[in-house]
Amino acid sequence: MNIGATPVDLPTDCSGALASTEIVVLSTMNIILGLFSASGNALILAAIYKVPTQRTVSNMFIASMSVADFSVGLLMNPLWVAKSILNIWKSDNKLSTVIEVFTMQTIVATTFSLCAVSVDRYIAVTKMRYHEIMTWKRVRIIIVFIWVFSIFFASLRLFITDPFQLPKLWLAATVITVIIPLTLISICYYLIFKAARLQIRIISSQKTFNPDEVIVQVKNRKAACTIGIIVGVFTICWSPSLVISLFQFFTSDLCRKTRINGYWFWGALAEFSNSAFNPFIYCMRSREFRKAVKRAITCH
Prior knowledge:
The structure is a single chain. With 300 residues, the protein is mainly α. It has 10 helices and no strands. It has helices at residues 20-50, 57-85, 94-126, 130-133, 136-155, 166-205, 211-250, 254-260, 264-285, 287-299. Helix 3 (94-126) runs antiparallel to helix 5. The N and C termini lie far apart (62 Å).
């Protein structure tokens, strides 16, 4: 069997179809995660919108990420429920194509927004001219670029019609939208913690110090830790998809490539669980966010 073979050439037992038990489990988990993602991120967005103190430059990037996570719960999880129930495992199916386009779009929007949050925190901790650098105009331009690029990049899926060429796209997408942003984020957090430790030593060595400066530094460091936890959870949730993508890319057996399609249901489930975790990490780590969410709820 050569790499140029078509699905017609494959044996009849080459299938990525799900078992009945898998369909039930996947559908149930996607419904639960969808509810958590939609409700949790809706509360984060409501807190930023309703509470004036939460409308900061940094929180605009968090809002961008929450919009992407909210769309996962509102749109992606229900679509994967439908895909599981209909047992659509072939990549050349129209519904499957639509789902893959939306999935890539939300991946880019989430990872690039998270990357923007990390760079923003790095500038806040290490640069004295933070408010001159991170202006509202620049923030809006960055957010618009993230969403326009996410739509453009996801649209590339529409131009690939050969199912056996898709692993190349998934691997390229993983590198561009996950590995590169996570590398940049890791560098930012290394520099953040290095600068934070230096600033704490400087403040501690001073005979007199400004309490407001100490409070700002503590808040910045806590915010950096929170995003660090989010990055850790993100890495864990997306690792299964990376493994599946690598296996499918480096497997020369087309029958095995086809069977691996069934594992993408579980990889997608792990991916989307990240969107459900993020809002609760914010609330657990930030008392201000918890108060803002309560205020947003009482406003209604």
